[in-house]
Specification:
single chain; about 240 residues; mainly alpha; elongated
């Protein structure tokens, strides 16, 4: 009787496979986790970008229109990228160009600020509220025996707390309306090419025109004048 032949082929194939696994170290992640470490120059460059990023802090989250937060957000994203991924060569021309872009945007927002009633409200609100809740300012002292009919009339009278309170209320109500009425101007400011001097000048000029045509802007301007005169008396 013939006996079944042994399945030599399958058993023999197992041995070299086990040996191969032993040689390659199955499960080891040494090679897989190995990465090229950045050079000292690259790390120094990244630190420089990180310092530059401090200048964008908070600018990308402001809500007043002249802040141009979306434009600052784009800059912040670029700076953050290079702060973590820059090579040594990214601290030359590329860094200088980024600094120039940031300076141009900061200068542009400064030129837009006078037309931003939401920003101007923010700048006076605390002091105006304090003034509006305070006592009536004292009348100016008179000196000399001059008769009443001979006394010169004052050029302007200091507004009292109630008047300042009403002016502040007007500013609070009308500032957002002014922003909406200036809408095309702010939209243009968000996309203007800051490398084009003529485009920047036109954007500011158009915004000034729209502001003059806005009833809400004019109401805010009058309120700011009254508030500003009243606050000036507290700084003397």
């Amino acid at each position: 009787m013939l006996r079944p032949r042994a399945r030599v082929g399958r058993t023999a194939a197992v041995v070299p496979l086990i040996g191969l696994l032993a040689l390659t170290g199955c499960g080891s992640s040494t090679d897989e986790s190995r990465t090229d470490a950045p050079s000292k120059a690259a790390l120094a460059c990244r630190a420089t970008w990180k310092e530059l990023g401090a200048q964008t802090s908070g600018r990308d989250s402001r809500t007043n229109p002249s802040a141009l937060a979306p434009r600052w957000n784009n800059i912040a994203a670029t700076v953050d990228y290079y702060a973590t991924s820059a090579s040594a060569g990214d601290c030359g021309t590329r860094l200088d160009e980024q600094k120039a872009s940031m300076q141009a945007l900061a200068s542009f927002t400064t030129r837009l600020a006078p037309y931003d009633m939401e920003l101007r409200l923010e700048q006076v609100q605390s002091d105006a509220q304090r003034y509006a809740s305070g006592p009536q300012p004292a009348a100016p002292e008179e000196s000399g025996p001059a008769k009443k009919r001979d006394r010169p009339k004052p050029a302007s009278r200091t507004a009292g707390p109630a008047e300042v309170g009403l002016a502040l209320k007007t500013l609070q109500q009308q500032a957002p309306v002014a922003t909406r009425q200036q809408g095309p101007g702010w939209q243009q400011a968000r996309v203007a090419d800051l490398a084009d001097t003529a485009a920047v000048t036109k954007t500011v000029k158009d915004l000034a025109f729209l502001s003059g045509e806005s009833p809400a802007y004019r109401a805010c301007s009058a309120a700011l004048i009254l508030i500003g005169r009243a606050l000036a008396t507290t700084r003397k």
